[in-house]
Amino acid sequence: MMDKEPTSWMSDAEISAHLRAHDVTPTQQRVDIARILFARPQHLSADQVLSIVNQETQLVSKATIYNTLNLFARKGLVREVIVDPSKVFYDSNVSDHHHFYNVDSGELMDIDSQALKLDQLPTLPEGTEADGVDIIIRVRSRG
C-alpha cells in the first residue's frame, strides 16, 4: 500500500503515521513542524518555519528547527533547495521538478519537470551514476 501524501487536511495522527512510514519518530515538535510544511506545496526557509511554529504552536529553538528540517530532508519528506550558500529552502513538493528563483523578491517557484528538457548529460565520472538533476533558473525584474 502506498503511503498517503501529506495534505492540509491530515490529522496529527495521519501526520504521525506519515513520519513513521519514513522512519521518523513523531515527537510533538516534529508533528508541529510537519503540519506547517505539509499544509500545501511550498518553499520555506528555516527562519520562516521557526517563525510560523512559534506563532502557531509552541516555542521551539532554532536548533530544533534546523535538526528537524535536516532529518526530514534526509528521510525524503522534504527537498532541500540551495539557492546560494546563504539561502536554503525546504520544499514540501518532493516530486521531480525544477525551480525559478526571483533574485529581487526572494521567491522560489516550481517548474514542472516536463517543462524543461535535458537532451544530454555530460559524461559522468567513472564508477558513478546520476542521482538527480536540480536546476534553478534565476530571474529578476526587467529594467
Automatic annotation (TrEMBL):
<keyword id="KW-0862">Zinc</keyword>
<dbReference type="InterPro" id="IPR002481">
    <property type="entry name" value="FUR"/>
</dbReference>
<dbReference type="GO" id="GO:0003700">
    <property type="term" value="F:DNA-binding transcription factor activity"/>
</dbReference>
<comment type="similarity">
    <text>Belongs to the Fur family.</text>
</comment>
<dbReference type="Pfam" id="PF01475">
    <property type="entry name" value="FUR"/>
</dbReference>
<comment type="subunit">
    <text>Homodimer.</text>
</comment>
<dbReference type="InterPro" id="IPR036388">
    <property type="entry name" value="WH-like_DNA-bd_sf"/>
</dbReference>
<dbReference type="GO" id="GO:0000976">
    <property type="term" value="F:transcription cis-regulatory region binding"/>
</dbReference>
<dbReference type="InterPro" id="IPR036390">
    <property type="entry name" value="WH_DNA-bd_sf"/>
</dbReference>
<protein>
    <recommendedName>
        <fullName>Ferric uptake regulation protein</fullName>
    </recommendedName>
</protein>
<keyword id="KW-0238">DNA-binding</keyword>
<keyword id="KW-0804">Transcription</keyword>
<dbReference type="GO" id="GO:0005737">
    <property type="term" value="C:cytoplasm"/>
</dbReference>
<keyword id="KW-0408">Iron</keyword>
<keyword id="KW-0479">Metal-binding</keyword>
<dbReference type="GO" id="GO:0045892">
    <property type="term" value="P:negative regulation of DNA-templated transcription"/>
</dbReference>
<keyword id="KW-0963">Cytoplasm</keyword>
<keyword id="KW-0678">Repressor</keyword>
<dbReference type="GO" id="GO:1900376">
    <property type="term" value="P:regulation of secondary metabolite biosynthetic process"/>
</dbReference>
<dbReference type="GO" id="GO:0008270">
    <property type="term" value="F:zinc ion binding"/>
</dbReference>
<keyword id="KW-0805">Transcription regulation</keyword>
